[in-house]
Amino acid sequence: MRCMVCGATMTLVKVVPDDAMAVPGFEHRTFMCSACHDTEQRLAFTRRDNEGGPEPVPVHTAPPIAPASTVQDERISAQAPGLFRRVVAKILGRQGTFSTRATQHARN
DSSP string covering 10-34, please? Predict the structure, then answer.
C-alpha cells in the first residue's frame, strides 16, 4: 500500500478485530508511512477459516477404475459385420411384410 501524502510504502503496525459488526471477520488495520510517518486506518474483512463456522467437508476420492476387458470387445467386433447384416435383413424383411399387408389391405 502507498502513502496518500508522499507515495512511499506503508507498513502495517496494528491490527484490532472489530467485534461490533454483525458478521465476524472485520478488523481495523493501522498503517504507517516509512518516509513521512503519516498514519492511516482501514477497515478490512478477513476470512477466518474454521472459527465458529461449519466443519470442512472431507474430500472423498473415487476408487480406481480397472481397464475394460478387451476379450469381449474382440469377440463383438468379430461378430459385428455378420450381426449388422442380419439385423438389417430382418428389418427390411419385416418392412416388406408390412408393405405387402398394406397393399393387400388397400385392395380389399
Answer: EEEEEEEE--SSSSTTEEEEEEEET
Which three three-digit cell numbers place residue 60?
472423498
Give domain status of residue 101, yes or no.
yes
> What 3-state class would DSSP assign to 69?
coil
Full residue range of the structural domain in which residue 27 is found: 10-45
Residue 79 within a domain:
yes
For 41-70, what is each residue's pLDDT tens digit?
999 888 765 455 566 667 777 777 777 666
> Largest Cα–Cα distance in the chain?
109
**What's the domain count of the chain?**
2
The reported pTM is: 0.43
- The verdict on residue 5 lying in a domain is no
Cα–Cα distances in Å, from 64 out to 15, 57, 61, 67, 73?
48, 21, 9, 10, 21
